[in-house]
């Protein structure tokens, strides 16, 4: 919805608070500069008919010269709403990301009758969409909060009990981590294409967690993780049963692996804030990380 004209409103202690904004893609839409191009009017307006089942919370009147609606042919619209109220309902400075959206067409040249057959049934997600963001989150959680700690635990504490089998277990666990990470990355690409197809891009605030999540994620996926995987195979090739000390490249692999594991866990945390996950989800994730760290401490 980049550069689109938007009208955002919610119920405040002083009545409905409505603001005009300019779409900014993934960022929270900025306030319209200049005089507002709308007027708040009673809901529903008596001179407009709506399809059965339509529910309105507020109505606005837009002048013809605002060039928001084409008065000679059909116009396409996107609507969205959030079940989470703004932290400060009396201010228009910020509001949470929407969690539902839909599309409809309106032809005001035909007395404002909306094409009822085009109105989607709205629910948690548009009926034509797939929740790739949640898929990305689950894949990354399984890869880096479950399988990676298991692989590190195997290499750190199970060598004696598993003998040479520890290496194969560690290797294939990390190969599975790499595959899940690749699938998670392609889930984001699919999500971007889906948003372009639906002409609906989620507006998310420009925050530290947003910038950090994207930067750290790309750095890990395109640099640190491939280097670490290659280093693991090289170390296995150079291994000698007769060695009397641990070579420096083994120690580099240990600490690079620990650094990657720490950053991925932190990046999942940033991702939860970036996509405004519910508080109980963030709480459970923190408990999971603390529990895993406790297990390492106990066996260490």
Could you write a compact summary of the structure shown?
With 300 residues, this protein is an alpha+beta fold. The chain has helices at residues 132-157, 159-162, 165-198, 208-238, 248-274, 279-299; strands spanning 5-12, 15-24, 27-31, 38-41, 59-62, 75-81, 100-106.
Descriptive overview:
This protein is an alpha+beta fold. The protein has helices at residues 132-157, 159-162, 165-198, 208-238, 248-274, 279-299; strands at 5-12, 15-24, 27-31, 38-41, 59-62, 75-81, 100-106. Strands 1-2-3 form a three-stranded antiparallel beta sheet, with no helix packed on it. A two-stranded antiparallel sheet has the order 4-5. A two-stranded antiparallel ribbon has the order 6-7. Helix 1 runs antiparallel to helix 3. The longest helix is centred in the middle third of the chain and has 34 residues, at 165-198. Residues 112-127 and 199-203 have low confidence and may be disordered.
What integer is the average pLDDT?
Answer: 80
Task: Tell me the β content.
Answer: 15-25%
Integer-rounded radius of gyration: 26 Å
Span from first to last CA? Answer: 52 Å
Written as H for each helix and E for each strand, in order along the chain, the element string is: EEEEEEEHHHHHH
